């Protein structure tokens, strides 16, 4: 989950996609990509079950190499930039050890959710019930990256944790897990938006890790609800020099 206190600097929408696609593939590519398309609008996409984003992604994947699609979407990352989590770099250097930093961050995040549970206050509109808190405790990678060897594992919060935990129907469960306004409604339609779009969430996850490691990183989507999974999970590769300098065990 990373930085739960982040402040968004820009309104995320199709212009964020345009900026990164043009930077990677050029303005001419964007013009060809969008020729004749009704562009997805974040505020109205739900009304058409995300049909415009489905068409946009289908054409994007047909026109660009898979690696370019992933690279672009990783930079879209919901409009985030590592500078928005710059505080984490100082904390990481103070710790001087990756595992120490991750454990401290986990404890801090968990304490915050325990306090939300005690006080009855919400987290972005979600109340941290006893059941939700138990689920969070069972999945620490929702709070802080979990290191396994030279890989960091991260799991995304379900968008509506209470309904997610209550749902028995797999499609409804995936629906309540998904955060993306460009894709969420397509899950219930039976024709989901391409799961390649989940590279945007991979970039979101990498944003916090890139902030405290102070460099671009690589990773992959391990599981996503758009691809039929029950959770959204990611792996981020730890550079060799970071392993040597900041991993003691």
Structure description:
By secondary structure, this protein is an alpha+beta fold. It has 12 helices and 6 strands. The chain has helices at 14-25, 27-34, 51-63, 66-76, 87-95, 98-119, 130-138, 161-166, 170-177, 184-189, 199-213, 240-246, and strands at 122-123, 126-127, 146-148, 151-155, 219-223, 233-237. The protein has a 4-stranded antiparallel β-sheet with strand order 3-4-6-5, with helices on one face. Strand 1 and strand 2 (126-127) form a beta hairpin. The model has no long low-confidence stretch (mean pLDDT 94).
The beta-strand count equals 6
Low-pLDDT runs of 5+ residues are none
Classify the helix fraction into a percent range.
40-55%
Number of helices: 12
Beta content: 5-15%
Radius of gyration: 18 Å
Q: Would you spell out the secondary-structure blueprint of this structure?
A:
Layout: H1 14-25, H2 27-34, H3 51-63, H4 66-76, H5 87-95, H6 98-119, E1 122-123, E2 126-127, H7 130-138, E3 146-148, E4 151-155, H8 161-166, H9 170-177, H10 184-189, H11 199-213, E5 219-223, E6 233-237, H12 240-246
Helix pairs in contact: 1-2, 1-4, 4-11, 5-11, 6-7
What is the compact description of this entry?
The chain contains twelve helices and six strands. It has helices spanning 14-25, 27-34, 51-63, 66-76, 87-95, 98-119, 130-138, 161-166, 170-177, 184-189, 199-213, 240-246, and strands spanning 122-123, 126-127, 146-148, 151-155, 219-223, 233-237.
């Amino acid at each position: 989950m990373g930085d739960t206190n982040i402040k968004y600097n820009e309104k995320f929408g199709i212009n964020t996609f345009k900026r990164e696609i043009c930077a990677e593939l050029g303005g001419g590519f964007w013009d060809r990509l969008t020729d004749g398309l009704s562009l997805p609008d974040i505020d109205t996409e739900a009304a058409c079950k995300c049909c415009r984003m489905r068409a946009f992604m289908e054409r994007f994947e047909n026109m660009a190499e898979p690696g370019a699609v992933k690279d672009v979407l990783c930079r879209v990352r919901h409009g985030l930039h590592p500078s928005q989590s710059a505080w984490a770099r100082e904390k990481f250097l103070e710790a001087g050890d990756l595992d120490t930093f991750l454990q401290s961050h986990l404890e801090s995040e968990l304490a915050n959710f325990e306090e939300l549970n005690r006080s009855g206050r919400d987290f972005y509109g979600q109340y941290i019930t006893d059941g939700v808190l138990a689920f969070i405790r069972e999945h620490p990678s929702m709070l802080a990256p979990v290191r396994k060897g030279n890989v960091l594992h991260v799991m995304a919060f379900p968008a509506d944790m209470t309904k997610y935990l209550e749902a028995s129907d797999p499609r409804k469960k995936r629906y309540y897990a998904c955060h993306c306004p460009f894709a969420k409604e397509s899950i219930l339609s039976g024709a989901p938006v391409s799961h390649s779009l989940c590279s945007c969430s991979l970039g979101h996850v990498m944003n916090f890790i890139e902030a405290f490691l102070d460099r671009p990183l690589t990773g992959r989507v391990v599981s996503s609800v758009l691809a039929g999974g029950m959770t959204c999970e990611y792996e981020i590769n730890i550079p060799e020099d970071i392993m040597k300098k900041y991993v003691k065990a």
